[in-house]
Structures are given as C-alpha cells and as structure tokens.
Design a protein that fits this description.
Four copies of one chain form a homotetramer. Chain A starts with a strand and ends in a 16-residue tail after the last helix. Chain A has a seven-stranded parallel β-sheet, with helices on both faces. In chain A, helix 7 (138-147) links the parallel strand 6 and strand 7. The model of chain A has no long low-confidence stretch (mean pLDDT 97). Chain A is globular and about 65 Å long. Chain A has helices spanning 12-23, 42-45, 63-67, 81-91, 108-117, 127-132, 138-147, 156-170, 200-203, 217-229, 262-272, 322-336, and strands at 2-7, 27-33, 57-58, 72-75, 95-98, 134-135, 150-152, 179-185, 208-209, 235-241, 248-255, 279-283, 299-303, 311-318. Chain A is an alpha/beta fold and 352 residues long. The interface between A and D is large, with 51 and 51 residues.
Chain lengths: 352, 352, 352, 352
Amino acid sequence: MVRVKLVGAGGYGGIGLVELLYRHPEAKLSVLVDVQGVGQPLSEMWPYLQGYCDMTIVAPDSKEATATAVDVTFFATPDGAGQLAAPAEIAAGRRVVDYSGDYRFNSTELYAEYARRINRDPVHQAPDLLKESVYGLTELHRSEIKKARVVGNPGCFAMSCICGLAPAVKHKLIDLAGIVCDCKTGVSGGGKKPAAGFHYPERYDNASAYRLAGHQHVMEIERELSDLAGGPVSVTFTPQVIPMVRGILSTLYGRLAQGVTQERVLEAYREAYRDEAFIKIKSASEPVGTSDVRGSNRAILTIACDERTGMFRVVSHIDNLVKGQAGSALQNMNVMFGLPETLGLNLPPAHP
Amino acid sequence: MVRVKLVGAGGYGGIGLVELLYRHPEAKLSVLVDVQGVGQPLSEMWPYLQGYCDMTIVAPDSKEATATAVDVTFFATPDGAGQLAAPAEIAAGRRVVDYSGDYRFNSTELYAEYARRINRDPVHQAPDLLKESVYGLTELHRSEIKKARVVGNPGCFAMSCICGLAPAVKHKLIDLAGIVCDCKTGVSGGGKKPAAGFHYPERYDNASAYRLAGHQHVMEIERELSDLAGGPVSVTFTPQVIPMVRGILSTLYGRLAQGVTQERVLEAYREAYRDEAFIKIKSASEPVGTSDVRGSNRAILTIACDERTGMFRVVSHIDNLVKGQAGSALQNMNVMFGLPETLGLNLPPAHP
Amino acid sequence: MVRVKLVGAGGYGGIGLVELLYRHPEAKLSVLVDVQGVGQPLSEMWPYLQGYCDMTIVAPDSKEATATAVDVTFFATPDGAGQLAAPAEIAAGRRVVDYSGDYRFNSTELYAEYARRINRDPVHQAPDLLKESVYGLTELHRSEIKKARVVGNPGCFAMSCICGLAPAVKHKLIDLAGIVCDCKTGVSGGGKKPAAGFHYPERYDNASAYRLAGHQHVMEIERELSDLAGGPVSVTFTPQVIPMVRGILSTLYGRLAQGVTQERVLEAYREAYRDEAFIKIKSASEPVGTSDVRGSNRAILTIACDERTGMFRVVSHIDNLVKGQAGSALQNMNVMFGLPETLGLNLPPAHP
Amino acid sequence: MVRVKLVGAGGYGGIGLVELLYRHPEAKLSVLVDVQGVGQPLSEMWPYLQGYCDMTIVAPDSKEATATAVDVTFFATPDGAGQLAAPAEIAAGRRVVDYSGDYRFNSTELYAEYARRINRDPVHQAPDLLKESVYGLTELHRSEIKKARVVGNPGCFAMSCICGLAPAVKHKLIDLAGIVCDCKTGVSGGGKKPAAGFHYPERYDNASAYRLAGHQHVMEIERELSDLAGGPVSVTFTPQVIPMVRGILSTLYGRLAQGVTQERVLEAYREAYRDEAFIKIKSASEPVGTSDVRGSNRAILTIACDERTGMFRVVSHIDNLVKGQAGSALQNMNVMFGLPETLGLNLPPAHP
C-alpha cells in the first residue's frame, strides 16, 4: 500500500487526486496539507466529499505534515511551493510528484528562462533536485520515472500538445518549424479562485484567447519535441478559454514532410501508441468530442491531415483535470512504485 | 457474482447502469439488449465506453438475450416494454427491476389511472406480476424489496419528493392537504432523444415549467405518502426544466402542524434517516447545491421551515440519473441479492 | 429630451440602463458617475460598449457630477448610497429613481425592519424623502409615480412575485395566508462581482437555494400584497440560483378560495392586465420559458391552477435585468416625464 | 422605405432579420414566406416575437408571396432554394440577397465544385443570374454590391476568416501557402433543427471538431483571398463546435513574409479598415472575447503575431448570426439601396 501525502488539498488538482486515490486499491491518502482550511475536514470545504474524505487538513509545518510516514508526496501547489518544500521530503526518504513548473526543466538555465516568463525569481531554490528531476509524461519517460525521486508533472496544455505531436516530430513527418498549437481549455483550467473572466455571467457565452504575447507552456512543448526530433522545434501556441468546464481540445498543425500522407501519419501514430493504455488513435472520419475523455485519463488523437494543402493536423482531446493533471500524476505514481500503470485509473466516467 | 441482463442499453438509464456495474465487485453485465444498435458494440454508440463496455448489443428475441444465464434483468425501457417482457424473465427464474411506470403501482386500478394520464392502454399486460410488484424506494420498502421478484423503480421526481416528505407526513408534522412539490430537473431527465426544447440554443439560458395540466409522477408521490400517513395526501406538483444536465432540486412545502417547529422537523428527519447511507440531512444554514450530489447516489435534504409563516419547507437534492434512476436500481439489486446496500455505489464523483 | 444622470455606471444595472437609453428617442445620458473607473470611458471597462457609450466616468463629488444639468438621476447603486445622495439631487430640482431598497418603504418603521434583515443601520438617512417616495411598480402605482420626486424601484424577485399575485389577492381569489413564492434566478442577479458561488466551474451544472433563513425581498412583496388585499398577507419565499444568466422563473402558489376555478383566475388576470403593454397572460397549455422574455421588458404570467388539489398556481417569467431592473426603471422615467410608457422599451430581443 | 420579402422566415437566419428590420427606420417587412408554419403568425412559432412580428407566414407560391410589392427579397434558405426561386424575383423587378451558397460563386465551374463538396447537383439552376451575382462581403465588394441585382451573402465562417486575412494576403504580409483557419463556432451555427450533436446533455461540456475531411466554406475563403493576392492562396480550415450559442472565434495563422513584424501587420490592418464602421482592430495586449461582439454586427480582429517563431496570427471575433448572417445581409441591403451602411445596425447589444 503506497502511503500518500498531498500538499495543496483544496484546489481542483488536490481534490482530483483525492477522488482518484479513494478508488485506488494499492494507495491511500495518509495526510492532507494546505495553508487554507487548516483544522477543518476537507469535506467541510468540499461537501460533496463527505464520507469519502473527512480527513482534517493540517498545516505544512505541523507534526502531522512532517512526521506522518508516507512513501510519496504530491505537490498540488502553484509554482514556487515545491522547490522550497520538496528537499525535505526527499531527505525524509519520500519520492515527490510536483504539479507545477518547478520540476519540469532539469537544468537551472531552462528553469530560469521559464521563471522569467511567469515573472518569478529565475533562481531555482533546489538546483540539485532540479537536475535529477524527470518530466512526468509517462508515455515518453516511463523508464526514468520508474527510478525518479522527483517528477515534474506536465502542464495540461503541454500534455495535450506533446502527446499529439511526438510521433510526428520523432519520425520527421513534419517540418520542425512553423508548428501551431491552437488550444482551447475549459474554465476549470484556471483553478477554483473566482475571477472576472471566469464569473458565470461573463463566461457563459464567450470564447476568448488570452496571454497571446507569450505563454509559459510553450517551453515544455518545445523542449520535449526538440529532444525527440534531435533538433530545434519551434511552436506557436494559442491558449483559449471556452465556456465549458472540463476538457482541452488542441488542434495541432504543421507542414507535412515531402511525400508524407494521411495514411502514413495514421500508421505512425498507431504504431507509436500501440501499447499505451491511455492513448487512443482515431481517423478523421470518426466523430470525437472532449466529452469522450471527460472524467477519464485518456487522450484521444484524431489524425486528420489535409493532403490538398500539404498540412499535418491532429486534434488532441484530454480532460485537463485528469490526463492533464491528477490522473497523469497518479499514473506516474503507479510507475514509480512498480504498480500496474492503469491501477485506479480505469473506471468509466459518468455520462452525460 | 450477480449476473445482469440489461434491456434498453443505449439510453441514459442504460449507460448509467453500465457505468455502475463496471465498478461493482459482485455483479457483472452478462447481456445487453436493445432494439437499436443490434450487432454493434455499445461502445460504438457511446465511444466514451470503449474499453469499459465493448459488449455487443443483441435483439430482444435473440438467443443471446433469451438464453444467457442471468440472475436479474433490468428494464431501462420506456413505459410498456417491461409489462410485456418481464413475465418471460420471471418464468426463466430471473428477478426484475423496471425503470418505468409499469410496476410502480401494484393494483390494476391504480395502474389504469396512471396509464390514462400518460395516454396509454389502461389494461396492464401482466396483471399478476403487477400485483406482486414492489415499489423500489429502498429506504421505505427495504424488507419487501429483499424478497421481491419484480421491483418498479421510482421516477426521478418522485424519488426526490418522497424522500423529502416521508418523515413529515408519517409523523404528521404537516397538513396532508396543500402540499406543494416545486421540482426543477436538469435536461438529462428528458433522455437522449433530441427535441426542440432540449436543443442547445433553445435551452441554454432558459428555464420553463411544463405539463402543468397534470404530470404522471404525482400519483406515485401521493400513493406513497398516503400509505405513510394512513390517510389521503394531496400534492400539487410543478415540473420545471432548467439549463443544467444532471440534478433535481425539489423544493417541498406544506403547512406546519400546530406547534411544530423547525427544530422538531430537523430532529424528526435526522431520526428517520439516521441509518440511511444515502440520505444526508442539513439545516437551513448549511449551503448545498445539486453539484454536491452530482454523480452520487445521495439525496441531501435541507430542512428549512419558515416558522414566521407557519410553513414547512424541505429542499431535496438528488442526481436524477443516479439516485433518481440507475443508482437506485442498483441499490435495489444489492438488497434483492443480500449484498451490502452501498456496494458499487460509494465512489466519490468527479468535481467540478 | 430627458437628461439623465446615472450613478453606479459599471454594474449590470448601470450598463442595462445605458443600453436602453441609447435606443430611447426622448432621453439621453448626460453624466455617468461611479466610484470605480473614474476618468475612464465606460467602454474601457465594458469594451462591447465602444462607440455606443464612450462617456467618461466621473466621481460622485466632481463638478461634472454635481453641476451637469439633468432632469432625473438614477441610482443603480447598492443599499445605502441613494439615501445619502438623493436629497442633494432633489434639492437641485432633479427627480430620482433608486434601484436599491433605500426608497421601497415609505415609512421609517418599515425601512428599519428591512434594514435589520440585511444587517444595515435601521435609521434611514433621508427620512423625509423616504416618506414621500413611491414604490416603482408601474402597473400598480402609475398615477403616484407620475408625480413622484423619488421612486424606489422594485427588487427583481419582488417584481416577478407581485405581478404574479396582485390580481389574486386583490380579488380574494386565494387565501391570504400560506402563499408560496418559489423563485429561481439567473446568475446575473448576483451582480458582476466574482464570487465562489458564481465561479463558472462551481455554477455550471448546479442549482441551489440560498438565504433560506430569511430574504429581504419578502417584505416588499408582503407590503404590496397586503395593501392590495386590505389585510395582512404572508408569504414564504425561496430564492434559488440556477445555471442561467438572465431570467427569473417564479412559481407562485396559494390556496384557491372557495369555488374559484382556473377559468375564473384566468379571466381575472386577463381583465387586470388588459391594458398593460408589458404583461402577457397565458393559460397552462401554452408553452413559455424565460427565453421568451429574455432581453425584453415583459412579464409573462402563466395561469395554471390545480383544481384537483384546490391550489392556485401562477408561473411568472421576467428578465431580471430588464423588467426586474433597468427596464422597469426606464418605464418609470417615461411615466414621470409624461412620455409614452413603452418608449425605448419595445424593441425585440435577440434570439437565441 | 425599402419593402422586404423574407423567404425562410422561421430559422435563426430569418428571425435574425426580422429582429433587425423591426429597428430599421427605412426598411420594413412586407411579406413572410416559408414552407413551414404557413397560415400561422410568425409569433406563434416564436412567442418572443409577439407584438413585434405577428405577420402571417405565407406559402412560396401564394398570391401574397408572389404579388406583394417589394423592393428586395432575402432568401434565408438552405442551399438550392434561391437558385430556383430568385429568377422570378429578379423578373419582378426585385433585388435579391441570398444567405446560402447558391450565389457565392459567380461562375458555373466554381459552383459545380462547391456543389460537389456538399453532395448537391453541380448544375446551377440559374446560371445567368449566377454570373452576375456579387459576393456579399460588404467591406471588400461595396461598389459592386451597390449595383448588384443578386448578392450571395458570405458563410459565417468565411466572413470571420476573410475579414481576418484580407489585408495580410493583399499586402503580401504572409506566405500564400500554409494558411490555417482554426474556427470555433457557437451551436446556433447549426440552425434550429434538433440533432444529437446539439442535444443539450451531449453538448454542454463538449468541444469537438467536425467535417475534418473537407468543409465547403474553404472555397469561398480561398477564392476571395486569391483574388486579393493576385495568385493562388491555400487554406487549411478546421471547423469546431463549442458549448456556446452565439459567436465565432477564428484563429488565423500564416508564415510572416521576410521582415514583416507585428507592428507592421498592426499598421496594415488599421489602415485597411480605417473607414469601416463594423471592423475594430486590437493589439495582442487588449483583452477581447466573443461576448464583445455578441448581438452586434461587428468583427473584432486581434493582431497577435508571434515574431519569435515567425508566425502571423490574427484572432477574429464575430457573432455568427449577425455579422455572420442577418446583420451582414442587412448591411448589404443598406448599400444596395443607397442608405447609410450602419442604419438599423448600430444598437448596443444586451450584456451579459
């Protein structure tokens, strides 16, 4: 039984993990840490969890938080928290999965560039840990994750884009320049904190692009794709919010390499993901929507190149809160502890 | 292991049961029957179920449908189907749970009255079976359900109203005349068939009352409440559709009996439902919404009488597709087969 | 040309009036006052208004706010603002329409009771003005509004309930005790300020009752209905929020007086509102939804008594931001200045 | 006063025009034609129009439809209707605006290609009229529209894309190959007919791409852009439906020509649309959403090139039912009859 400490209990990322752990036969929540709601049961903040998780939230420096025996600590926290707190977890013999950007870049230079984009201190607080950290996109880094002490879980947009582009860049099916990621997210991607742009009357019949001048997620995407391609990949990334709650629909474009057809791309993707439990490949004629992955840890990739114009196109569908966050984190935990990768992650979602 | 035959596989009621059975440790789907989609896997009709239920749909009169060894047959079918088909199931030694109105009234007279209201033939096709049928509101009829061969599962509106009113009428906390059930349902209550009133652009910012001249569900409510009260109860029932998908919010009113206070009502409800796993009681000051029961088999009852005006008021929250349909049906199956009542029904839903 | 000063420019009540005034042939906006956004054009806060209202917002005590020549001042402000600021407007020869509860009760005692319910100072700051104020439900107080210096515009819930109950209590078609107002509002009723309960992910598939322990709107309703009935009327009021943006659906119940039929009620309502441009009467068999009044100044009342149970029932549909707020305020202005009552208020809304 | 005949009265395109004409000071509806609802007032089909349009719908071959004196006929009809019926209108001295693809291509060859894509007879039924028809994108074809007898109104997707790309291709700011139009539409774009994909429970939290194998709208876009560029332009077009009702958000990509900067593109767009009342240009740092054009005839273009990757990017926002359909049609009518172009089209929409 893997014993879990969850830091950042009350956000969507935290409760998503609580939900998944409840169903997991080989892992259990041992301690819940947050700076808000300390002393309250989690179910007071989130009444729908009554009877499922009535565990009391404890403060980060409380004895319960520091001394409870656990095997793995999840940081479901914003940028900055994990780099300060993870070293102590590691020192205590625990392994770490961090949801934020703190451990997505295993070099201080790359991290500094990332930090500047999000207006944070470019100096990482745990540079040694950073260097050994592993990027938590299980399908690409499974063997390293197995042994990793610290995993930096991918951003939700990055997850949808990298899954959708990896085989194309790896097998040189497309030009490495001029790739476009047109990404639409549901509102839950913005977290639980109320804001004008997520206020129901302002959002209900409204789609909008944002942060057009630069978005931090593009760095992870370019780094991963460049590694796969063995050369620099550049990506134009457009984040957009649409009036739904769960789901990311990323439409990915590039120029098809000479002679590459839709059929060839389809084959390459089927081959690349043949053994992956959580990635499904569809051709252009099969109807798919984000509701087909809602509540599940799946990514569905629709291969729909436009041969007439010579353009590669893949539509990537994930649930931003599952494959894009808590589900992917749990998938990594399963790998880290030698459990079957789908354990606790293969239940059908509720529809509609 | 309880072996299940599901008739009416492709509707919301059918897939809801498929989802729940997948998680159930002591029951399994043995055969899927429908008149639509015969020969296809269910997951072709519902791609989100790929890998969870790829069982092929068979026709009602196929050998697979009639000869597969099963212990219980669920009719997730509209009115009329179960009364024709259930006798053969019983004859084959199977027990039956029917979602429709076919077995909610265990007398031919009551059924005839109900059938007239919904413009159907008032002559029941299986009068003997009708007479032995049990109304499937587990919390009220647990011991009969245990032994029942045929259970008529409650309507979703009726479920929300009867749970919310039962202790009040049983203990004479309110007048038996002049009870009002003001019920708001999410759109999934209308099923999966497209219709003008459920067309996204017509429904998205629109709330409406319907069938004001008479709604079939009131009969079940009055019958159950009259039985509990030991005298005639009359109910004014207003069905309304609001632009959400899952959930019923029923606000229930009556005149408080002489001397009855909010405190007294609250105590009576807490007492009445003390041992019920799926019914939660809240006082007026605790915030609740239908999202707190979304995806779960729970009913939450907020006791909020208005002592100033002498009015009893209870707000009843359920998920129309779970406690209002498939969850309640499975709860009955658990009871019928001597399984723990919460088996397969106690997983936390996904939020938001 | 009626010259208008609008105080509280940036809220939904303010922009609603700006939209309506733009279309009005005999009134024009002369000055925009707010404490937020001072010095900015309104269209910077609300880009959709670019080219329609680029007027600069001025501070309440600025020379523009105090010295611009206007005929009427609208306070689209929360409780408390109008009672402090209205006397100076009156002294300057302007007439006043206030959206809040500040001038809905023309006695200091009633106001004190109201203020206590909303946790405000029970001492009104402009008691003389209060005494001469007129309740701005045009259909009931047209002749007094014509001459009024200060009009207290009704609350949106109160508007829907009083319109729907007035003929019934006036003509003693129902008992004066035991009346129930079950009211569902769209989220815009909560204003433009982000809050947890109006955060898109928390509200999108969620209906909830709130402030069950007492809501300020019931006082207006009871006062108006008691005046009409010539005796005390008591009302149980349940406010509920549903996941839509514009619209109130109020379902109103009472006990039918001896011998009163649906037909009789329908006739009485048709007669009572025969000459009203903004009130439409429907019978139970005509389908109506809040989308039929969305964007318009209409109230649609569906008369749907339940003769079987002896219950009166009317379903009242309004747009909370038009007939429930800015539209009704403009209707009052038209009356106050001798303009045709429908001027600027009779344009078809956009559908869907 | 321009007298209008509207064919196809009951669809969203028809009622959109009815709403706009009601506000128009120099045009009026003279006759309403449809094949559904004949003999009924339009307001029976659409109760929200009561008092605004109670005109009776007449059959296409009725005397009212053929003999009423009108100046212009709008075909708010699907493909195929206008090509059969327009010649008689022209013969009767009327001018024609057609919403469908029937008159968007003024050559029989182009039309044939278009017709094949939508599985229709490639032989146009009014080839002579087709040849003289003018593409109704007012901003690009104003002078020809002025004199046109037949105007083929643009498709809604095409409108958003062409407005957003025209200056770029005309001034060679981007490569003419490899252009991407990533388009998201609200559900009203699919019309008023209920369908599984637009059923509220299936659409509410679901975004999806469709017709990936080829979409008819790309032809108009490529034809117009090629004409502007003076050479062949190829476009990859991705239609997507998102859970909102009104609005199109089109994100347009291309490769920036050598040396072209964001600043240069911004200037070119400001210059190109300087005198256009309905097109607003924004830079990347100004927040915009489709709600800023909702209910209005505006297009807002956000210029947001990615200089780092050398990519041109424009985000185009329109209301698919106004600038994308009825508003644009009315704008054309204004031009055809020498009226001010903004007449009847410059009222502020209702927000939120």
